[in-house]
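Form P-L/3: holo structure prediction, ligand GEK.
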Amino acid sequence: MKFKDDNIYKVTQENSPFEFNKQVASVFPDMIGRSVPGYQAVINMIEQLAGRYVKDKTNCYDLGCSLGEATLAMDRGIVNANTAGSDSSSPEITIVSVDNSTAMLDRCQLHLDCYKHHSFITLKCEDILTTKIENASMVVLNYTLQFIPVEKRESLINSIFEGLNDGAILIVSEKISFIDQPVNQLFIELHHQFKKDNGYSDLEISQKRNALENVLIPETLESHVKRMVDAGFKHVNCWQQHLNFASFIAIK
Ligand code: GEK
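OUTPUT (holo model):
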């Protein structure tokens, strides 16, 4: 499937808030790959963790799935670990992939169609705040919680906890902020340098930053850990931090 390069913010734009529309969906792999340090490492880790944690006859959830990269990673992990058994298809494991952007989900379906997958994958167009998590062995919130209003994040993590089976895993990846202001500022600047090194201009970087203002709300590493511990997760840890981007595991 062909995707375009991300040139969205190359031209001067009126200052409208960032949206996951058709234009974004058509460049998304290029956009996320050039903007999020450590993205591919996170996808690879989701594959590994799926191999360890996904159990037969359970559900997995990819909340804010965009084009389904994490969905496909879970599917590969399930196959590699052979939890699917010798049969090449496993109707016993369902991956529920949810996004509230129809533009993203339309592309996601086309993207998934390009790959042979082994789990039963079901796409849902809905707000993840309304998604019922049931009989889950793995839930992925890959760079999605940051778009949920801060005051609704606790109830979302609590309802994910309720829907996970004992010993099951939640993976949360996020852009993060720091209370220590010099560190916060340094990591913001180093992240902008990361984007420049990946070919974005100063104009593109500043226009995207303005568009994301009040749309993507980062929190500190400590707030994320506390919320997951408070929800009842027994083991919570940050397994990767690359500048102001971090990924956490939480095991019930
Ligand atoms: C990946 N996980 O490639 N309900 C459902 N979907 C939502 C909501 C919501 N309330 N809010 C935002 N989204 C992916 C990348 S992108 C991250 C995730 C980024 C969706 C939104 O439509 C978008 O597709 C996704 O969450 C966030 O592993 O662009 O920084």
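COMMENT: The beta strands are 59-63, 90-99, 119-125, 136-142, 164-177, 219-220, 235-242, 245-251.
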